[in-house]
Amino acid sequence: MDATEFFDADLSDEVAVETLKNISVPPCPEIIVALLGEAQRDDIDFIRISRLITGDVALAAAVLKSANSPFFALRRKVQSVQQAVAVLGLRNLLKIVYGVVLRQSLGGAGAPTLARFWDRSHYNAVVSAYLAGRLPGISSDDAYTFGLFHDAGISILMQKFPDYRQTLIQANAAPLAVTAIEDEHHHTNHVLVGALLARNWYLPDQVIWAIRFHHEPAIFAETRKHATPDVCLLVAIRLISEHIVARFLNYPDDAEWEHTKEAALGHLGWFEDDIDDLARGLAVDLREIQAYRAG
Fold it and tell me: May I ask the CATH architecture of the domain 3-26+111-294?
C-alpha cells in the first residue's frame, strides 16, 4: 500500500505526499512482529512469548498491571508474566501489548505530555469493543484496536509541529472538515499519518482504512474505494464511542458530534435513547477501570 493511496480522490496533492515523506512514523516494534508471527502458528509457543515480554521490564510490568485490571475480570490475580500469558491468551495479550508499546513508541523522551489523549485512547478502545459486541458482523478485537489507534497520528504530529496543539484546538471546534484545517496548516493530517502507522504495524486492512476515513461520515451514503461495510461500521462506532467517553470523563463533545450523530446512529440502526442505555451498561466497567488506572 503506497502512501499516496491514502489520498483516494486527492491523488494530485503532491505537497501532502511530500510532507508525509518527512514525517517519522515509528516502525512496528519487534515484540509486535514476534507476537503476530506466533499468531500464525498452529502450535503457539507461550513460553517463548513470556520470555519476550519478560525481557522488557517496563512492558512486563504493564502486562501484569493490565492483566489484573477490571477490564479482563480475571478470577485470580496473576503474579507473573507467564501466568498472565497463560490466562489471557494471545488475542487479549496483543491488546495489552499494542496499548503499551504504542505509548512507548509515541511518548518517549522529548514527546509532549498527553495524559488526556492517552486516557481517551484507552477508554475509546474499551467502549468501541463493547459497542461492536452489540452489532452483528464486526470484530470486537478490530474495534478495540481501532479505538486505540485511530488518533495516534495526533501524537506524531504534535512532536513534528510545535504549533500543532493550536491547530488541533481549532480543528476540534470545527463542525466539519476537521482534517482540512490540519491540511491548511501542515499539508497533512492525523488520519493520514495514523493510517500509515497502522500499516507499518501490520494492523488489519479494515482498521487501517477506518483510521483513514474516521472523520468522513459521508462514506455512510457514498460509495468510496476501501470503505467496506466493516470500515463504515468502525467509523460509526468511533463517533458514538467518542461521545460516550466524553460524557463519562465530563469533557465537552467536539463540534463534530452534533453534525454527525444522526448519520452514525442511522448507519447502525440506533437512536439517541440507545446511547443512554449503552452508557449505563458501560458505566460500572469504566468506573472500575478509572479507579484502577488512578491507583
Answer: Orthogonal Bundle (1.10)
